[in-house]
Design a protein that fits this description.
It holds the Pfam family Bac_luciferase. By secondary structure, the chain is an alpha/beta fold. It has twelve helices and 16 strands.
Length: about 375
Amino acid sequence: MSVEIIGMITTQLQSETLRPQGSVIDRDHVRRFAQAHEAAGFDRILVPQHSTGPDASQVIAYASTVTERVNFLLAHRPGFIAPAFAARQLATLENFTGGRLAVHIISGGSDEEQRRDGDFLDHDQRYARTDEYLEVLRRTWTSEAPFDHEGAHYRYEKAFSEVKPLQKPHLPIYFGGASEAALRVAGKHADAYALWGESLEQTRELTQRVRAEAAQHGRGVRFSVSFRPILAETEAKAWAKAEHILAETRRLRVEAGWSRGGPQQSEGARRLLAAAERGDVVDERLWTAIARETGARSNSTALVGTPEQVAQALLKYVDLGVGTLLIRGFDPLDDAVDYGRELIPRVRALVAQREARQGAQEAVAA
């Protein structure tokens, strides 16, 4: 199973260490950012969704016109539009991109974030709604005839979509959420299950649980893990760079008057903080200091070292069955370029070597 490499773009230059620069929607930045990922050899680009930010689907619609090959991953929150309409909307966008779209379903790990958009369901209710939402979404994409549906959240008579996805049987569904309620939904619907950059031990445990849930439905699932690689020509310089990133993160948060905030409802955030409790460095290269500093409000753990060291660290996750690696930097545009030059080719070479050895062993065994 060859590895998939995903990056992430936003509509203006910003990160934990960079104040937002330019207008909220900077078309030139989006163009440069998307084209940099394509040139760097990324397979796919995630476009995130926030309750106060631009519509991610329209960002992808624009970015697809200034790129040719790279695929896209749309962060999509169930519940704000009805699933049959969403299915037609997503299939339309996928057709206009030439089949380059997948969807990342995010049910929501923060009541505050959801309520900004008028959603007042609690955590477990949101995942129950997502379960039904995905059932209708997938059926709308694949049904050859109108269908009826009556559930706790949605009701349809003769629902149907004339527009069908170019990809069969439907757009790939990526899914996030580490709570028990989330894992039940993942087992039924996820093509790819996404988790943040946890320790190897945590990753092994969580992927086993997801596999068990999927097996109950006779399904398999792909796994994605997210990291913020910090690279330098020597290991010492990489760790010095990491400390500078931490100092800048603290400085900007103090200047902005931000705090870590209260406990997170997101189980993924709790798991990152649990890893951080083991120390700033776990498994030799997993750096947790930014996660602790920010309250783990996003994928905020890093792998630190030379390009070869970080590539080897990523391979350990591939060995656990992870097939997708989402990597983004603290200096987002420049880091994407560096990853394309220094990291992605090394990761692909290591995975190819591993697959070649496995193929040779299987051939001998046969």
